[in-house]
Amino acid sequence: MMNPARRKTDQPLVLPQLPNEVFLEIAYLLCTSDLRQLGRVNRRLQDFVADYLSRYRYNVGIHALPNELVLEIAQHLGHQKDCSHLARASQRFYPVVMRYIVRHDVVSSGSSLLNFAAKRNLVGMARRIIRLGGDVNTRIEFSTRLVGKQLTPLATAARHGHQRIVKMLLEFGASHFVDGKRLPLALAILSRHENVAMILSQELDSSEASFTSSTRQTLLQMACAAQLVSLVRYYLEHIPCSSHDCDVALLRIIQKDARKIGIIKRQLYEDVFQIVLMLLRHGANPD
């Protein structure tokens, strides 16, 4: 019979009990992401992995270069995508190279990255670009059916419904207008981003209530067509609207709803019903 004491000493070591020499062999075969996973096993492995990465991964070769040389490399790469790959090579490179990318974009490309950040709701990136001198009203080419072929960062953020970016751009002085038109507001309405449209409507007055474009609709009519109940209520209660404007808005929302279901024996959607009632209460002619 096997001695119990001997059986106990012959038990294999579990992973956290292995000597550092064995961990070095294991770490050599693992990629950086797998090493980070290994470091989550316990405190001892966390300390080992942190020391290993610092000694053998992060501070060797290109990762050990001073910031000045890293910037020289970034300047010679030329293409923005290549610079972006360099920035992601290590945590130390990222702030250094991204600052260079943003400054170069502001000086040479008209702050085009600001529209990129506005489209993807990258608030921190957008704020960094503006603080480094980015033009908050820069434009990019974009075909719309409303007006022109250019979008500002505010118009881009409004079109995609990013409230935080919209608020931040307004705080930094972004213009509500593109070529004299409230394009950001119109795009928010057409895209049915009601909360963004409400934000952009706060300083609206009666002289700006009409939006002359290829659609030939006022903002009230556009809000009705988009079935944005809260926005329609806000316009009717805070911005003077002519009876003709209400008549046209009523006609268009009924026509639009009728095309969806059919005029005979159709049932109005709840939001359409609410909008119709509001228009009638504000003097719209049902005839």
Q: Would you give an account of this structure?
A:
- With 287 residues, the protein is mainly alpha-helical.
- It folds into 4 domains: 45 residues; 31 residues, no CATH class; 91 residues, Ankyrin repeat-containing domain (Serine Threonine Protein Phosphatase 5, Tetratricopeptide repeat), CATH 1.25.40; 71 residues, no CATH class.
- Helices cover 60% and strands 3% of the residues.
- The protein contains 17 helices and 4 strands.
- The protein has a two-stranded antiparallel sheet.
- Helix 5 packs across helix 7.
- The longest helix is centred in the C-terminal third of the chain and has 19 residues.
- Pfam families: Ank_2.
- Multimerization status: single chain
- What's the N-to-C terminus distance? 104 Å
If you average the pLDDT, what whole number results? 83
Q: Can you tell me the CATH topology of the largest domain?
A: Serine Threonine Protein Phosphatase 5, Tetratricopeptide repeat
Largest sheet: 2 strands, antiparallel
CATH architecture of the largest domain: Alpha Horseshoe
Give the radius of gyration: 30 Å
CATH superfamily of the largest domain: Ankyrin repeat-containing domain
Which residues sit in consecutive blocks of at least 5 with pLDDT less than 50? Answer: 262-267
Q: Output the structural class.
A: mainly alpha
Q: Could you say how many structural domains there are in total?
A: 4
Summarize the structure.
The protein has helices spanning 4-9, 20-29, 32-38, 43-58, 67-77, 80-87, 93-108, 112-119, 123-131, 153-160, 163-171, 183-190, 194-200, 219-225, 229-238, 243-261, 270-281; strands at 140-141, 150-151, 210-211, 217-218.
